[in-house]
Write a structure and sequence with these properties.
This protein has 16 helices and 13 strands. By secondary structure, it is α/β, with parallel strands linked by helices. α7 crosses α8. The structure holds adenosine-5'-triphosphate. This is Glycine betaine/L-proline ABC transporter ATP-binding protein.
Length: 361
């Protein structure tokens, strides 16, 4: 599918208009194995598949030649099947895993050039990580678990307790401040993990499959929680998942990885509307298209005999949200941006998408 416009489809994401990225990654490689450095340096070895490379050199290219930018306030999702390189990629960002080649710039600073002391500072104050396994200290109450990072930073007891109570409330755990982790459900423990990550007021939150151990309903709750927190605190987030619906729910943009490389990076509607290859097409096949595609994807140019006195909607309205208005109007809906008519949408365009959805179900 191509968008019904010559311009690339765009949503009003936080990177609009493009500000300086918080994180900028260029040509990043992480190769595990003997003499790993030679792999990104050799045109020939770079071109091998993961299996061929392993065969020839004994090395695994966990991340191969990945580049992307994360904008301030963006939720950037890294998605892929098990073994595609997601965790390695995200750990390379803070050099928890040492990259083999490439560039990582964080707020203008070359991360690969940072010494150990600077890295510790950055990890303590600028980044926070939330893992699948919460890593809570069992003998500490919720409030003390949340305050733990602040204690390490040397914050006074009264100040860190005040801050911890603030974020405990923010993540919806008021009333449980004095509980111990084993008195809490999995979802609540993950809220403590979230609160702990937020306590230090980092610039970037990194999530490594934080909800994959939770049952589906709690998982959905936690996803909503992340959306709400993001709205309230506006932090830049990098979120790893292997679950497409989670990626679509949370991500402003999604990077799809396969065998260490990038298959496609784009907004949810770009992945669903214009999958880069069969791999992505397969991934998004069951996504209800009306939930993701926007009017920009389904509008058609106005013909001379089309009535142009119908209602107006913006191009970034999701089809599902426009369905009622389009079907109720006895004139095609005009898709208008900044006063300019981009196209029109009538019952037919809407029904094609909705019917397609029913066909897929
Ligand atoms: N320390 C290591 N030594 C050798 N190979 C490794 C190492 N860590 C990861 N790998 C390999 O790198 C590849 C990517 O692993 P990674 O854990 O980043 O993938 P992932 O997408 O996060 O997978 P999962 O969803 O299962 O966590 C895999 O083939 C893995 O076996």
């Amino acid at each position: 599918m191509t968008p019904a416009t010559t311009e690339a489809p765009r949503r009003n994401t936080p990177q609009d208009p493009a500000p300086t990225p918080v994180i900028s990654v260029r040509d990043l490689w992480k190769v595990f194995g003997p003499k790993a450095d030679r792999v990104p340096a050799s045109e020939e070895l770079r071109g091998l598949t993961r299996l061929e490379l392993l065969d020839r050199t004994g090395c695994t290219a966990a991340v191969r030649d990945v580049s992307f930018d994360v904008a301030p306030g963006e939720v950037f999702v890294v998605m892929g099947l098990s073994g595609s390189g997601k965790s390695t990629l995200v750990r390379c960002l803070t050099r928890l895993i040492e990259p083999t080649a490439g560039e990582i710039v964080f707020e203008g600073e070359d991360i690969r050039g940072a010494d150990e002391k600077r890295l510790r500072e950055l990890r303590r104050s600028k980044f926070s990580m939330v893992f699948q396994h919460f890593g809570l200290l069992p003998h500490r109450r919720v409030v003390d678990n949340v305050a733990f990072g602040l204690e390490i930073r040397g914050m006074s007891r009264s100040e860190r307790t005040r801050r911890a109570l603030e974020v405990v409330e923010l993540v919806g755990l008021s009333g449980y401040e004095n509980s111990y982790p084993d008195q809490l459900s999995g979802g609540m423990q993950q809220r403590v993990g979230l609160a702990r990550a937020l306590a230090g007021d980092p610039d970037v939150l990194l999530f490594d499959e934080p909800f994959s151990a939770l049952d589906p309903l709690i998982r959905r709750d936690m996803q909503n929680e992340v959306v709400r927190l993001h709205r309230e605190v506006g932090k830049t987030m990098v979120f790893i998942t292997h679950d497409l619906s989670e990626a679509l729910r949370l991500g402003d943009r999604i990077l799809i990885m396969r065998d260490g490389g990038t298959v496609q990076c784009g907004t949810g509607d770009e992945l669903v509307g214009a999958p880069a290859d069969d791999y992505v097409r397969d991934f998004v096949r069951d996504v209800p298209r009306g939930d993701v595609l926007t009017l920009r994807w389904i509008m058609r140019p106005a013909e001379p005999d089309d009535p142009l006195d119908g209602p107006e909607l913006g191009p970034d309205v999701v089809v599902k949200e426009a369905t009622r208005a389009v079907l109720a109007a006895d004139r095609p809906v005009k898709v208008v941006e900044n006063g300019k008519l981009l196209g029109i949408v009538g019952d037919e365009e809407i029904l094609t998408i909705v019917a397609g959805q029913e066909g897929d179900a």
